[in-house]
Design a protein that fits this description.
By secondary structure, this protein is of the alpha/beta class. The chain has helices at about 20-30, 45-55, 75-90, 100-110, 220-230, 240, 275-280, 295-300, 310-324; strands spanning about 5-10, 10, 15, 35-45, 60-65, 90-95, 115-120, 120-125, 130-135, 140-145, 150-155, 170-175, 205-210, 235, 265, 285-290, 300-305. Helix 3 crosses helix 4 and helix 5 (about 220-230) runs parallel beside helix 9 (about 310-324). The longest helix has 16 residues, at about 310-324. It binds flavin-adenine dinucleotide. Flavin-adenine dinucleotide binds next to helix 6, helix 7, strand 16 and helix 9. Keywords: Electron transport, FAD, Flavoprotein, Transport.
């Protein structure tokens, strides 16, 4: 029997987020012969992004486009999503493990009385069904989980699964009417965006991060210059945020953002366990610290013992020449 796999795609600044393509790839990974994939796009002014998504291998795109959906609200988005899910009776639903996915997936799971596996970093198939790999204890261990019944609800951590590629086909686009809930307990009055540079931290391929060692707000400038040359995002430790050197939107760690870039460059960060919880899964870690005993060197692939105010400008200069 044909089963339906649903991917809830997500926008940021009107553009599809990279994690949406990774969630689509997650659906393809569990797809069996005859299974169909529906990608759902909820928001306002979605025409061009729906066309874009249609070429990435889903069988159909369901679009709920309404001015009330311009900003995320768990109640309005649930009201947009649930009728589609009830109609298609999904076997599995995939979200990004983003602020939206972390909120909307459990709402969906509760309404459908379904189980959920969160923060998935790898998926493989087995005779007993798909196996989902997720980190435990701030990335110190991993567990493998399987669903014993459906529907399966999964959130995938950004930057871990490969993104879906254009498929050479174009999915049909179905526009679904939106019926607002009769009353709302949550009202979004204003959305305040704190800029963390041009590149989204959770999806960045390279992150240059500063700790208390940068010593001041101005101390972040050399890091921003290095980030600009590398096309990187700028992150921070809580030490730097608490000291007022940068906004909390940049904080990485247990109580900040969890990131998995290709390259993480930690500048003046000691490597406290709470910071490692947010970045230790980075593919390559480079640490710059003037204390050779700093714990960050225990997780670093490359370590530079030195003053970040000397080392970072030198790196910027060399990368500028190399990438010119
Ligand atoms: P420090 O530990 O003070 O380290 C600064 C480093 O800079 C030192 O290693 C020093 O040698 C180096 N340095 C100084 N000057 C220079 C220089 N000129 N050149 C090169 N190196 C230099 N922390 C997080 O980061 N993220 C979290 O999400 C988080 N959540 C937490 C949750 C809880 C419940 C608790 C209790 C703590 C949490 N923390 C978190 C805080 C964490 O324990 C550390 O206090 C924090 O990570 C330290 O930040 P830091 O490494 O920037 O500062």
């Amino acid at each position: 029997m044909s089963r339906m796999l649903v991917v809830v795609a997500e926008l940021r600044g009107g553009k599809l987020r990279q994690v949406s393509y990774e969630a689509l790839q997650a659906a393809k990974t569990v797809q069996e012969d005859g299974d169909r994939i529906t990608a759902v796009l909820i928001g306002s002014g979605l025409e061009s992004e729906a066309q874009e998504l249609a070429s990435y291998g889903a069988d159909e795109i369901q679009v709920v486009d309404h001015a009330d959906l311009a900003s995320y609200n768990p109640e309005t988005y649930a009201a947009a999503l649930l009728p589609i899910l009830k109609a298609v009776q999904p076997h599995a639903i995939f979200f990004g493990h983003t602020a939206l996915g972390r909120d909307l997936a459990p709402v969906t799971a509760a309404r459908l009385q379904a189980g959920q596996i969160s923060d998935v970093v790898a998926i493989h198939r087995s005779d007993a069904g798909p196996v989902f790999n997720r980190p435990l204890y701030a990335g110190k261990a991993f567990e493998e989980k399987r669903f014993t019944g459906g529907p399966m609800i999964v959130t995938v951590r950004p930057n871990n699964l490969p993104p879906a590629e254009p498929s050479g086909t174009t999915a049909g686009i179905i526009r679904t009417a939106y019926s607002p809930p009769s009353s709302l307990r949550t009202v979004i009055r204003e959305v305040v965006r704190q800029m963390t540079g041009q590149v989204d931290l959770t999806e960045a391929k390279i992150i240059v991060s500063g700790g208390r060692g940068v010593k001041s707000r101005e101390g972040f400038q050399p890091l921003e210059q290095l980030a600009a040359v590398l096309g990187a995002a700028v992150g921070a430790s809580r030490g730097a945020c608490d000291a007022g050197y940068c906004e909390y939107a940049r904080q990485i760690g247990q109580t900040g953002k969890v990131v998995t870039p290709e390259i993480y460059i930690a500048c003046g960060i000691s490597g406290a366990i709470q910071h490692l919880a947010g970045m230790s899964q980075s593919r390559i870690i480079v640490a710059i610290n003037k204390d050779a005993e700093a714990p960050i060197f225990q997780v670093a692939d490359y370590g530079i013992v030195g003053d970040l105010f000397e080392v970072v400008p030198l790196l910027t200069e060399e990368f500028r020449k190399a990438l010119a």
